[in-house]
């Protein structure tokens, strides 16, 4: 069995806490972008909620919402030792330890259990979902009867009798799959199920073996099949077992059964040691490209690694028809839907560390462009309107109403009004092109997105003859507390940017096939420029503040209260949503986010004035907020505030700061945490076609080191409080900026003193 990595690479649970079972299931999730398996205990407990997700396998629920379908669980084991079944609700746990080893991508479990008859059994397991071989997983273990000899029965099954919660209460469940077939295949077993609505087939096969003589039987139950191994165990003797698993869906193969069973036969022959070693090697190679090293602060180092580990697990460079859901492949939150979170918060991490994966994520948007066109048409607009919540087809899957069995109905305006997602997707497209210079992607795919989103905004804005400006009415910005807003600053500015950027690229590539196919005329391009130039931006010249939306300055100046967790508290008498909308309180940074994304359009003084104005009203009720504030605080000279917000972002899941980690991983916050380090503390930005760095390390850190990919070249950056050292991986020459001065770097380290920021 593999030895565990150093503590700085490990997240460990030292004692069994039933009430925290689902919290740790999220933290201990193993995934590879194709499949996600929550970190449920292999031993059944009534407090757990095993979830297995296949990216792209969506189904409609009883509430008419499209959601990721909870697929059969292949991880479960059941151990009956001398007629007593291991159960955490019976007997006594003498020892309990679970460790997520992030360097090696494994989940380790160790228990010592004393039965009601005082018999002690020790069991250790290692679980993995192969990072590169997307269809392979295993649970390897060792067990020992410490103070008895007797018969032991080990049952390892595939359980298709699994449910998803409805989002209202854990008592209401949905079952997405119906049984197609289950069968014995030699020493292996196979279970095949199909989603009710989308008709996607999922097939899983397992084989369990022991390093001793045993009798094998097969057990059947409702939507369940298992191998049952019976053997005689001697006191004090250790026994090894391995449960191999393979899994396929009809999204990726025509013959799911054959693919699963053939792959299972292959990996059983290869053996668990080879599977384990190739998986670990894949993780080591991955970390070589994405790891960030922090000297002087162990808390920050481990927290950052946790975020990067799970972010890596969410993405699949081999599938251009899936994106990353807001909760990853880690839980049921937001039903597995993709939001603007992907392009604004997660995509930069992949652009700079794994451009192939970044392209796949953007190709998902291209492949759902027809769905976006349908959204626009249904809304009465032109072009393409990317969905606020997107699943497999790109059509809007955010419900307009939520109704509960108790007669409550909640009206949701977001899908009708939170249109900034259209520009956010476009922002990701152009960001990717600037950082990679992937001309093939731009000309064949990205340019079409630019054009169709510009057409959306051209139809969404209308001309107000009184003020002679284009206005955009009835929207919701990133803030989200305030609805039906007119001329919302973030939305209008991003629409302006979208129109102008699309016009510039359409003009530059007017001879391209895409421009010809979409029949983009010079008059249309000029109209985009005209609208962009005349979009209303609300700005108070005297104070230097951008008004978040019309009438915002007239709202009540509510004072937020401090709290132990560091997130501001809303006074109890104002927590009613209707009342809160009458105040200046905002859910997350809105104007401040704009000043980060389009930073070169605003002066440092403007950024500072607006940060100072909006920060006291920001409640940080979204996990997306702290990273943005950290980055901007770094840029305007507020190092302590920047570091406080960084830690909030980095530890949202580890500390369960928002109380909802059990429903899944905060993927956007993870991506934002990476940006807080690289774009915030390291001060990295793109300007004039070059990378620039203006570092401001937290005083708690001694050194920061990370690697990035820039326009096809690998760059290593090492920063202290006094110097920035950079070099290229392959020896190629790259020109970068460091606090205003340009430097040519090669394979040799070049160190630049950090004088006063310019």
Write up this protein.
With 758 residues, the chain is α+β, with helices and mostly antiparallel strands. It folds into 3 domains: 9-289, Distorted Sandwich (Beta-galactosidase, Chain A, domain 5); 368-537, Alpha/alpha barrel (Glycosyltransferase), CATH 1.50.10.10; 540-619, no CATH class. It is 31% helix and 26% strand. The strands form 10 sheets. The chain has a 9-stranded antiparallel sheet. α4 packs across α19 (667-681) and α18 (639-650) packs antiparallel against α19 (667-681). 51% of the residues are buried.
Rg on CA atoms, Å: 27 Å
The major pleated sheet works out as:
9 strands, antiparallel
Distance between the termini: 54 Å
| Number of self-contained structural domains | 3
Average the pLDDT over all residues and give the rounded result: 95
Total E-strand runs: 36
Give the name of the CATH architecture of the largest domain. Answer: Distorted Sandwich
Structural class: alpha+beta
Question: How is the topology of this model organized?
Answer:
Blueprint: E1 10-13, H1 21-27, E2 30-31, E3 35-37, E4 52-54, E5 58-60, E6 66-68, E7 77-81, E8 84-85, E9 92-101, E10 106-114, E11 120-129, E12 136-145, E13 150-159, E14 164-165, E15 173-174, E16 177-185, E17 188-195, E18 201-210, E19 215-221, E20 224-233, E21 239-249, H2 256-270, H3 272-290, E22 292-295, H4 298-314, H5 341-353, H6 355-367, H7 369-379, E23 401-403, E24 409-411, H8 414-417, H9 420-436, H10 439-460, E25 462-464, E26 469-471, H11 489-508, H12 513-517, H13 522-534, E27 539-540, E28 545-546, H14 577-580, H15 591-597, H16 604-614, H17 625-635, H18 639-650, H19 667-681, E29 685-687, E30 690-693, E31 703-710, E32 713-719, E33 723-728, E34 734-738, E35 741-745, E36 750-753
Parallel strand pairs: 30-34
Antiparallel strand pairs: 1-9, 2-3, 3-4, 5-6, 7-8, 7-13, 9-10, 10-11, 11-12, 12-21, 13-20, 14-15, 16-17, 17-18, 18-21, 19-20, 22-31, 23-24, 25-26, 27-28, 29-30, 31-32, 32-33, 33-36, 34-35
Helix pairs in contact: 4-19, 5-6, 5-9, 5-19, 6-9, 6-10, 9-10, 9-11, 10-11, 11-13, 15-17, 16-17, 17-18, 17-19, 18-19
């Amino acid at each position: 069995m593999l030895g565990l990595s150093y503590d700085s690479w490990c997240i460990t649970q030292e004692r069994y806490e039933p009430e925290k079972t689902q919290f740790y299931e999220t933290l201990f999730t193993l995934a590879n972008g194709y499949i996600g398996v929550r970190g449920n205990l292999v031993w059944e407990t009534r407090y757990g909620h095993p979830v297995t997700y296949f990216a792209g396998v969506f189904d409609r629920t009883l509430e008419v919402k499209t959601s990721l379908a909870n697929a059969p669980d292949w991880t479960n084991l059941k151990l009956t030792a001398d007629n007593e079944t291991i159960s955490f609700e019976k007997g006594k746990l003498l020892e309990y330890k679970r460790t997520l080893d992030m360097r090696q991508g494994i989940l380790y479990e160790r228990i010592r259990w004393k039965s009601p008859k005082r018999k002690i059994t020790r069991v250790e397991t290692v679980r993995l979902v192969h990072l590169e071989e997307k269809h392979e997983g295993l649970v390897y273990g060792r067990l020992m009867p410490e103070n008895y000899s007797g018969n032991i029965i080990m049952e390892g099954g595939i359980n298709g009798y699994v449910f998803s919660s409805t989002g209202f209460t854990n008592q209401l469940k949905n079952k997405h799959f119906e049984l197609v077939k289950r069968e014995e295949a030699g020493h292996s077993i196979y279970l095949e199920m199909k989603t009710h609505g989308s008709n996607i087939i999922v097939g899983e096969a397992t084989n369990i073996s022991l390093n001793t003589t045993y009798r094998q039987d097969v057990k059947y139950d409702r939507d369940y099949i298992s191998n049952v191994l019976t053997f005689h165990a001697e006191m004090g003797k250790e026994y090894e077992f391995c449960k191999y698993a393979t899994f396929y869906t009809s999204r990726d193969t025509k013959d799911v059964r054959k693919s699963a069973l053939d792959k299972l036969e292959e990996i059983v022959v290869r053996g668990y040691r080879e599977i384990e070693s190739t998986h670990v090697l894949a993780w080591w190679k991955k970390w070589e490209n994405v790891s960030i090293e922090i000297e002087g602060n162990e808390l920050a180092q481990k927290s950052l690694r946790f975020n990067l580990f799970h972010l890596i697990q969410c993405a699949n460079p081999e599938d251009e028809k899936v994106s990353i859901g807001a909760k990853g492949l880690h839980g049921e939150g937001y039903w597995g839907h993709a939001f603007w979170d992907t392009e604004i918060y997660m995509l930069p991490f992949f652009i700079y560390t794994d451009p192939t994966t970044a392209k796949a994520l953007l190709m998902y948007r291209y492949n759902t462009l027809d769905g976006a066109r349908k959204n626009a048409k249904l809304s009465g607009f032109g072009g393409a309107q990317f969905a606020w919540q997107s699943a497999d087809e790109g059509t809007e899957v955010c419900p307009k109403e939520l109704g509960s069995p108790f007669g409550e109905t909640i009206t949701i305006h977001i899908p009708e009004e939170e249109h900034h997602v259209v520009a956010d997707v476009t922002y990701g497209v152009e960001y990717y092109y600037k950082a990679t210079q992937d001309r093939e992607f731009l000309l064949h795919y990205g340019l079409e997105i630019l054009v169709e989103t510009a057409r959306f905004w051209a139809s969404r804005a209308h001309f107000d003859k009184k003020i002679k400006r284009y206005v955009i009415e009835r929207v919701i910005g990133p803030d989200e507390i305030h609805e039906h807003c007119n001329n919302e600053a973030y939305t209008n500015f991003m629409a302006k940017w979208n129109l102008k950027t699309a016009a510039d690229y359409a003009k530059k590539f007017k001879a391209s096939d895409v421009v010809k196919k979409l029949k983009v005329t010079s008059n249309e391009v000029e109209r985009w420029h005209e609208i962009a130039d005349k979009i209303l931006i609300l700005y108070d010249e005297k104070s230097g503040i951008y008004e978040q939306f019309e009438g915002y300055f007239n709202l009540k100046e509510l004072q937020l209260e401090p709290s132990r967790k560091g997130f501001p508290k809303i006074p109890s008498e104002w927590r009613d949503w209707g009342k809160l909308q009458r105040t200046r309180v905002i859910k997350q940074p809105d104007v401040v986010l704009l000043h980060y994304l389009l930073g070169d359009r605003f002066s440092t003084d403007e950024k500072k004035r607006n940060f100072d104005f909006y920060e006291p009203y920001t409640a940080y009720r979204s996990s997306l907020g702290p990273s943005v504030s950290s980055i901007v605080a770094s840029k305007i000279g507020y190092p302590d505030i920047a570091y406080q917000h960084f830690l909030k972002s980095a530890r949202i899941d580890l500390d369960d700061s928002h109380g909802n980690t059990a429903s899944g991983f905060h993927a956007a916050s993870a991506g934002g945490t990476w940006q807080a380090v690289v774009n915030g503390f390291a001060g990295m930005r793109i300007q004039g076609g070059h990378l620039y760095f203006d570092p401001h390390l937290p005083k708690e850190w001694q050194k920061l080191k990370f690697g990035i990919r820039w326009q096809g070249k690998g760059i290593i950056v090492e920063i202290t409080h006094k110097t920035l050292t950079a070099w290229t991986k392959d020896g190629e020459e790259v020109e970068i900026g460091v606090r205003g001065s340009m430097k040519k770097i090669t394979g040799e380290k070049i160190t630049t003193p950090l004088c006063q920021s310019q």
